[in-house]
Specification:
The structure holds 2 protein chains of 2 kinds.
Chain A: E1 10-11, E2 26-28, E3 31-35, E4 39-45, E5 54-59, E6 62-67, E7 80-83, E8 89-95, E9 106-110, E10 113-119
Parallel strand pairs in A: 2-8
Antiparallel strand pairs in A: 1-2, 3-4, 4-10, 5-6, 6-8, 9-10
Chain B: H1 10-13, H2 17-23, E1 44-48, E2 52-58, E3 67-72, E4 75-82, E5 90-94, E6 99-106, E7 117-121, E8 124-130
Antiparallel strand pairs in B: 1-2, 2-8, 3-4, 4-6, 7-8
Chain lengths: 134, 145
Amino acid sequence: MADETAIEKRETQDLQPTERMRSGRTYVPNVDILENNEKLLLLADMPGVKSDDLDIRYEHGELVVHGSVQPRQDAEQGNYMLREYGVGDYYRAFQVGEGIDSSKIEAELQDGVLMLHLPKSEQVMPRKISVKMK
Amino acid sequence: MFGQMTFPTSRFDELRRDMDRLFDAFGMGLSRRPYARAAAYPAMNIWDAGDTLCVEAEVPGVGRDDLEILTVGNELTVKGQRGPVEGKWAVHRNERGTGEFTRSVTLPCEVNADKVEAVLDSGVLMLRLPKAEAAKPKQITVKTT
């Protein structure tokens, strides 16, 4: 969505398959999706999420990323002088093509940024075809 | 409802908003529309905790060494940068910005710059700024005759 700025947090409209026990908002993390010959790389901004709070699943071509975030601002409603974002979970689901080797998916989390390495399966990797000289 | 601010951003940012645009540091390539909230990066939450002012900002992907925090009087400046991923990549989606950012806010009172605590955890920057003595709330006892 070219009109939205990456600064504002978007709340997710997706229905989640499981219900949450406690009330709270869920946000859509901003992502970058990159590709090279070997893999897809997905980066998601999820500040406040630590590795224990991450739940990543890949099944039937769908990749679901969920990060839990505990409330951390010890302020009551009235004490805020400036409030530009909310604190809540992150959730986003992606359709990923069949060409991913799901057994080799790797996830790294650093400084609140999730980096998912999705290696392409052998069949879809571009193959160099060498031309023999006759 | 979050995002509904008690005070307009300009109360804190008016000196700096244009400067931020001059730097155009964050380089997201999106059209610059004036927003009522979070006109600059990073978005901040500021609240009063009695004797301390608390400022929190979400800066994912920024490490300790990439961050610079300054206080001058009652003005707080947060500067930093984060780089793009190394290597050659085809880009399917780009929602995250990269580059440098700088944002200054005017705090509602003077703070004790020597005692400011800053903690960076999982991409969340949390600042606790103790108010200067004169700015702390003081109880006044009422005498009865």
